Amino acid sequence: xxxxxxxxxxxxxxxxxxxxxxxxxxxxxxxxxxxxxxxxxxxxxxxxxxxxxxxxxxxxxxxxxxxxxxxxxxxxxxxxxxxxxxxxxxxxxxxxxxxxxxxxxxxxxxxxxxxxxxxxxxxxxxxxxxxxx
Length: 133
Hints:
Elements: H1 3-25, H2 30-62, H3 66-92, H4 99-132
Pfam family, one: Hemerythrin
InterPro entries: Hemerythrin-like
Organism: Halodesulfovibrio spirochaetisodalis
């Protein structure tokens, strides 16, 4: 496995683990808020790394591979929606939150992120690895 993919997979684990910590700390607590802000930073950093190091390689190959190009377009379009959902969540809970509404929004976001990360690891990252082999 390439260093980039190892790093991206490790970041996925850290991000999901950090969300679990926020849940344990409580979104309304000062510690929970700090952890939530750190997750936002980690997500932004992770996306920038993908944008700079992963996607350019895949896009270049996609110019000659229509199937890969379609896959990339699907992933990029899906990511636009996920990014909007993530930003909306962070904006909504920037000053804390609790109760059923937070639990529902949190669960939805966790489902979206974990599903996306799983798809990246099983499909997109494998395509990258095949190109680098």
